[in-house]
């Protein structure tokens, strides 16, 4: 059994075969998924997908690339949706310094507002980080984000900062890059971080794992992530699958 903690089944890329994609995931042993909504278009779709499947959940938040577009009304809407029975986290949120659509100061302001929102509704947060690891860790410390904890989604930073995040009540989630032959950092993190702090994800339709790199990613392929972690940690695939699923269910407060 596997729990893909970060999927975008709400993306346009799945519009024509969403149900078949979910069926393939279940056939591959992926019982649970969290669909992440991050703007006005993807949030309602995430909720719709979660409402129609007992073991699919939703996260709602605002992506840092689009921070400049977020209004106070959007923030209020996200806070209202936090009461939805299938919403298990706020996010994805964070900082993205790769794209320059939203200025860094605007990204940071929207990030801070969402952390404050998560504290109000008592839900953990999901962190998007691209080329901004040190600034993200600093901001999480300043905002005392450990009060709600969260997930470092598709973590791609150094080992030392991974352990700093763990000390702040964050889980480390690994995705397709841990399977890439030239990706040293995620492999080092997988070896260094104890199983109790690890999660697995696909971030589909993005970041397909080896040997499917470059294709549209899908939840079924989270098994390839778990296989790589098992190999790196010299554990059985079954143990990695079981432990990461237990971790995710505990993190998201899921009892079923």
UniProtKB/TrEMBL annotation:
Binding positions for a divalent metal cation 1 per the UniProt entry: 6, 8, 92, 203
InterPro entries on file: DNase_TatD-rel_CS, Metal_Hydrolase, TatD-like, TatD/YcfH-like
Domain of life per record: Bacteria
Binding site for a divalent metal cation 2: 128, 153
Keyword set, alphabetical order: Hydrolase, Metal-binding
One function term, GO molecular function aspect: hydrolase activity, acting on ester bonds
GO cellular component: cytosol
Name of the protein this chain belongs to: TatD DNase family protein
Organism the protein comes from: Salimicrobium halophilum
